[in-house]
Amino acid sequence: MKIKLQQIICCYIIFYALYSVSTRFIPTAVLWEGPAADILYKSIIIGGGILSLFCLYVLRNSRKPDIQTILLGVFILVLGVSSLLNYKYELAGNILSLATFASQLILFYFLPKILTENRLVRCLQLTALLTSFFWNIGCIASLWQYIRNIHYTILNPEGHRIRQGIVDGRLFGLFSDPNFAAFTSLILILLLLFTIRKTSFFPLKIYGWTSIALNICYIIMSNSRTIFIAAAGTILFTVVLITYRQHRSREEVTPGKFFVQSAKRGLITLVAMIAVYSLIFFPLRQIGQMLQPERAVNDMVREDVNTDNITNNRSTIWKNYLSLYKEKPLFGFSVRSALPYVTDKYPDSYLAKTQYVTHNGYLSLLMETGAVGFCVMGTFFLLVLLQSIKKLRQKETVRESYLFFTSLTVSILIFLMCFHDVFFTVNIETMLLYIAVGYLQCANKGSLAAQSA
After folding, report:
1. Cβ–Cβ under 8 Å, residues 434 and 102
2. Phi-psi region for residue 421, left (φ > 0), alpha (ψ -120 to 50) or beta?
3. Beta bridge partners of 163
4. Contacts of 356 (CB under 8 A, 6+ apart)
5. Please, what is the average pLDDT of the chain?
6. pLDDT (tens digit, 9 = 90+) per residue, 193-203?
7. How far apart are CA 300 and CA 50, in angstroms?
8. What pLDDT is recorded for position 452?
9. Is 203 exposed, middle or buried (0-12, 13-18, 19+ CB in 10 A)?
């Protein structure tokens, strides 16, 4: 039964990833509108819930739960308390979000205890290949659309015209949001790099590098500052981590030499990133400016990004949410109640009028579960961090899989600084974050699934 369960889980992961990225691609997002979207979403939730129960059954004879598992259980309890305390607002939606979080957490976090490392790697490789094939079509079409100058605007699934050209500051292309699209590209680049490192099949390597080049082009032309920060932070962290790994494996290398090597490699990496950005961005933008249509000076000019508003309204959003947080500091507003609450109590407020979400995953966590939930989840991640540092300080060489999952975790955690609610949603980054943290925790504790399983 365990082998069959592993195969089903791998198929579910691929389906989950494809569904997630399809919601960010306008043609498929429109196709899924209505009953189809509801059926697909509930299939994800129900399927994940059933698989999570099977996972608990397989792990029923495992040793007593560690402190991290206990903390996650306490967090689920806190989320349930928060939902009950906010029963007047979106109770059904909050219960569904609680079930979604619990099922995804159990399935993905404990996955490294169910799947052998080889099977997990193969599953992620197949996910990367199938998802990137679909996503590459969107990147190619978006870049081609920009060069061919389709009026620099496009209809989104809600029927509103949005700026699609880089001349107007953002390449939407065929994606509903350039920030999420660019981060999807960044995630796929990490998965493809891992796939390339793990395969000796030359055609697959060619496909991988081609896909990486396409996704780099879209990231650059998306002009998403958040993704630039996430990409730069991830790359610099990985460079330092690899340097440290080499430092620990060579006893003759001094700490001073390690810092010098890290600084030198980091500087070279930054220069290379700037060079690649310049070589792609400026020539393509010049083409766009040459082809742009006749229009008024202020036609479709973005008003939310200028020298006086460099955070794209985020600072204002954060201040308003922090002011709202004071009303329910302990257990928060639950997952879906903050905006209904503020709309009911303060209809003339900034948040009620704009209906903006937090645009910060950590602030979302604080708003939704209060100080209690925030501290519980913060303690969980702090313990994983401390154990990972202890693991990295060991003299034996850390495996490439460990480096990959560490970099993947860092990338998503950086992304959370400017975008909301990864913890309670059905997104590819949600799935990968839980899998990555679960892998790190199992590797730190030496509880990865046996390779003979």
Report:
1. no
2. left
3. 153
4. 313, 317
5. 83
6. 999 988 888 89
7. 48
8. 45
9. exposed
Cα–Cα distance between 423 and 236 in angstroms, integer?
25
What kind and span of H or E run contains 155?
strand 153-155
- CA distance from start to end of the chain: 11
The one-letter amino acid at 259: F
78: left (phi over 0), alpha (psi -120 to 50) or beta: alpha
Element (H, E) at 162: strand 161-163
Neighbouring CB atoms inside 10 A of 324's CB total 20
User: Tokens in use for 416?
Assistant: 């959370």
Cα–Cα distance, 22 to 287 (Å, whole number): 29
- Cβ neighbours, 10 Å, residue 353: 12
What is the per-residue DSSP string for 181-216? HHHHHHHHHHHHHHHHHH---HHHHHHHHHHHHHHH
Q: Does the pLDDT of residue 15 top 80, yes or no?
A: yes
52-79 residue pLDDT tens: 988 888 888 777 788 898 999 999 999 9
User: Coil, strand, or helix at residue 256?
Assistant: helix
Of 369, 366, 368, 344, nearest to 355 by C-alpha is: 344
Question: 239 is written with which tokens?
Answer: 């460079």
Residue 181 tokens read as: 């699209």
Residue with tokens 């329910």: 328
> Between the CA of residue 206 and those of 195, 196, 209, 220, what are the distances in Å?
11, 9, 5, 21
Count Cβ atoms below 10 Å from residue 206 Cβ, excluding itself. Answer: 11
CB 116 within 8 A of CB 447: no
The residues pairing with 449 across neighbouring beta strands, listed in sequence order, are 116
Cα separation, 431 vs 421, whole angstroms: 13
Spell out the residues 6+ positions from residue 173 whose beta carbon is closer than 8 angstroms to its own: 138, 139, 141, 142, 143, 145, 146, 154, 164, 181, 218
Would you give the DSSP letter of residue 167?
A: G
Q: Using the structure block, give the residue that is written with the tokens 């029923």.
A: 60
13-50 in b/e form (b: 16+ CB < 10 A) is bbbbbbbbbbbbbbebbeebeeeebeeebeebbebbbe
Burial 251-282 (b: 16+ CB within 10 A, else e): eeeeeeebeebbeeebeebeeebeeeeeebee
Q: How many CB atoms lie within 10 A of CB 95?
A: 17
